[in-house]
Amino acid sequence: MDIKRSDLKLYARRALKGNWGVVIGATLISMGIAYLFTVALNAVLFAALGSGIRALSGIFSAAAATVPKGNVSIGTLIVILVILYFVYLVVMLLMSVGYQRLYLDVAAGQKGKLTTLFWAFTHSPWKFILISVLVALLEGITMVPVYIMTFAAALTGGSGFAAAFLLIYEILFLIVYAYVLLTFSQFYLILVEDPAKGIFEALAESQRMMKGNRGKYFVLCLSFFGISLLAAFSFGLAALWLSPYVGCTMAMFYLGLKGQVPEIVKQSPAGRAAANAPYTGPTYYQEQPVPQQGTYYQQPAQTTPQESYYQQPAQTTPQGTYYQQTAQTTPQESYYQQPAQTEPQESYYQQPAQTEPTPTAQQAEESTVPQQPDETPVSQPDAPSDRDIPSDTPLA
Could you say which residues of the chain have pLDDT below 50? Predict the structure, then answer.
């Protein structure tokens, strides 16, 4: 991903503009529900502890081992406490998934809704519950060596080997845990965007997306450390602003990995206002286009005549107009159409004008008949006849 960290935060603030009321309202609703569950859990817990203390103090007989008649037994209170705590975990888990869906919608340029907070209750809720259970089991399994080593150290009175083992194990565990957490950090967002995907499919997609981006995500998370410390001194009031800001930034990081950051959040308020301004000039398909070579198949603005192809040009020279009806063209450029004022030798495949008449067949036949000589005798000079020559005249 080539989007800078500062740009991601800037895009998140722009996306939250106009949605602060929704995200803060969702945070308040979540805090209110969590508070109600906490009050109920504390009430049941205190009731169970009170009943247990009275039973252990000997107020009641050992055979009864219950609270006074008409009250709920200790066993019933414990069962109610366990069920209530489980419901609390499920509700808060599904609401946290709804939070991510809300931040993803806001980051995508959509208008946030308060009902999105309960989105996971109607979209594959058991899948998200199963994922949370599996994650909890994996975390518990990774802590088994720590429990075993701690128990062995307690039995043996402590040893340097146990302390060294625990230190090395904790360091390695943190490294591996951080790597796994960064690799599959987009897992929930993938499922939130498309709940129909399988668990392993989402894991593989998250691994592919985070390849080469783990360091960027880690630095992005660290960048909120200072502001989180400042928010801790605000008695939780700053969390109303910080939680949506962090969540929307992480959702923007996810969209950046997919190349789907909306263009509306990339524009500054001034640029957005200019884009929404009314039409004031001859702009075509874009804002203030710059004429350049290679602008084809669209209506250019103030382009030179030689750049206009396959469209009706305005004030173009004749040599730049092809495959359309030209105006004021020279005769040598007009082919396969009726030319105007063309030379006779340039007119093809049509009846020429002002050509020399071709001799007809009768005229050709008459021209082939030989002319009879004139029968008038040519006058010749008188020659002497043999009778006029005297007989005694010697012959030559």
Answer: 60, 62-70, 285, 295, 303, 305, 307-309, 316-317, 320-323, 329-330, 333-335, 342, 346-348, 373-383, 385-387, 389, 391, 393, 396
pLDDT at 72: 63
Indicate the SS3 state at residue 142. Answer: helix
pLDDT digits (tens, 9 = 90+) for 149-177: 777 777 766 667 777 878 888 888 889 98
Closest to 51 (Cα-Cα) out of 29, 32, 30, 77: 77
In angstroms, rounded to a whole number, what is the distance separating the alpha carbons of residues 100 and 109?
14
Give residue-wise pLDDT tens across range 312-323.
555 544 554 444
CB 287 within 8 A of CB 274: yes
With CA atoms as reference, report the closest residue to 14 among 108, 81, 116: 108
CA distance 75 to 49: 11
Q: What is the pTM of this model?
A: 0.61
H-helix or E-strand spanning residue 95: helix 74-107
Classified as helix, coil or strand, 347 is coil
The span from the first CA to the last CA of the chain, in angstroms, equals 134
d(CA 101, CA 313): 52
Cβ(62)–Cβ(81) under 8 Å? no
- What's the rounded Cα separation, in Å, for the pair 36 and 373? 141
Q: Where are the domains of the chain?
A: 9-270
Measured from the Cβ of residue 192, the count of other Cβ atoms closer than 10 Å reads 24
Are 248 and 107 in contact by the 8 Å Cβ rule? The answer is yes
CB within 8 Å of 343: residues ≥ 6 apart: 331
Give how far Cα 6 sits from Cα of 2, 13, 86, 252, 334, Å: 12, 11, 40, 12, 62
The residues, ordered by sequence, that sit 6+ positions from 309 with a Cβ below 8 Å of its Cβ are 296, 322
Contact by Cβ (8 Å): 166, 146: yes
Q: For residues 370 and 148, give the distance between their C-alpha atoms in angstroms, rounded to a whole number.
A: 138
How many CB atoms are closer than 10 A to CB 254?
A: 26
| Residue reference for tokens 């020659």 | 383
The C-alpha atoms of residue 36 and residue 27 are separated, in whole angstroms, by: 14
